Amino acid sequence: MKINPKKYLLDIDCYSKEEILQIINDSKIMMEILNRKVKKIPTLRGKTIVTLFYEPSTRTRISFEQAGKILNADVINIATKESSSNKGESLLNTILTIQSIKADLIIIRHPHAGAPYFLAKNSEIPIINAGDGSHAHPTQSLLDLYTIHNNIGQIENLNIVMVGDILYSRVARSNILGLSILGANITLCGPKTLIPNEFLSKSQLFNNITFEHSLKKAVNNADIVMPLRIQLERQSSGHLPNLEEYSKHWCITNDILKFAKPSVKILHPGPMNEGIEISSEVAHGSKSLIKEQVTNGVAVRMALLYSMLNSESKMSLEE
Questions:
Q1: Which of 2, 13, 6 is nearest to 175 (CA)?
Q2: C-alpha angle 224-230-231 in degrees, rounded to nearest 5
Q3: What phi, psi does 285 have (nearest 5°)?
Q4: Is residue 307 pLDDT above 50, yes or no?
Q5: How far is it, in rounded angstroms, from Cα 319 to Cα 39?
Q6: Nearest-CA neighbor of 113 among 137, 89, 85?
Q7: What is the separation of C-alpha 253 from the centre of its chain, rounded to a whole number of angstroms?
Q8: Residues 302, 33: contact at Cβ < 8 Å?
């Protein structure tokens, strides 16, 4: 299916390098609005945005809601436990109902990989994927790319280390795509059981990606280190011996960061399991950009909503 990047954001590779950089630049403008005393502009007045989350979310749902309201859109949050889907209504019929009330955009999180693609194929309304199973989380990738670019000034040729549960992480999959599009060098590190097989091979399809089992070697010369949440709900599958063993070998600590560049920065998509994939000292230390990521998420999602719902007009910072 051919996807129009102005209408659908199903994964980060719906966007070209130039379009990603445009979102990054627009996000800087949106950050100016966030830093004002009065955080409100009329850009999306008259537009209706519906958030439809079939999985729990705090950061993503709230940041989308905040982004829409700052741009003056009407934001409707549908609690799926209280909706007709809880009575057996299909996903398609739910979307057709939302379409019938003339909503302008749907933001969906769903436990099944591919659900947003199904909606894009069967709906006339623009769709944003806010996370589908273990497949993709493109808006998290956009805010991570913005955070890196905003702090370092570039992404091309940076050394990015992603540590931990790559196998089940939709954030990892989208970030691997986004960072690759913008020319970064990526090192994956963690237990081999949590690294997809395709990244363990020497295939030329992934010539910017390497796998390193040793965390000390992986972070050597790193510009960015990104530990990923160990998804405790998945570990009954036997991919880890125990969490103590994982923390011993792959937890990001200050001692580990001594092997990285002095200027290294830390990102984490959240929520964090402190003491397992990242120490509290690192999570809340001077190298951490984790709190900044949360703030940046609002600005990036503002820029995204603007690009999808108001792409024909010039951006205005007027209140």
A1: 13
A2: 135
A3: -90, -175
A4: yes
A5: 8
A6: 137
A7: 23
A8: yes
- Span 25-50, pLDDT tens digits: 999 999 999 999 889 999 999 999 99
Amino acid code (one letter) for 287: K
SS3 6: coil
- Tokens representing 168? 């089940």
Question: What's the full length of the chain, in residues?
Answer: 319
Domains by residue range for the chain, with CATH: 8-136+295-309 (3.40.50.1370), 138-293 (3.40.50.1370)
Task: Assign 3-class secondary structure to 261-290.
Answer: CCCCEECCCCCCCECCCECHHHHCCCCECH
Handedness of CA 19, 20, 25, 29 (dihedral sign): positive
Distance between CA 263 and CA 148 in Å, rounded? 12
Banded pLDDT at 5 (limits 50, 70, 90):
very low
Distances (CA, A) of 103 to 51, 66, 256, 297: 11, 18, 49, 23
Question: The whole model's pTM is what?
Answer: 0.91
Select from 236, 244, 251, 233 the least CA-distant residue to 190. Answer: 251
Phi, psi of 225 (to 5 degrees): -120, 130
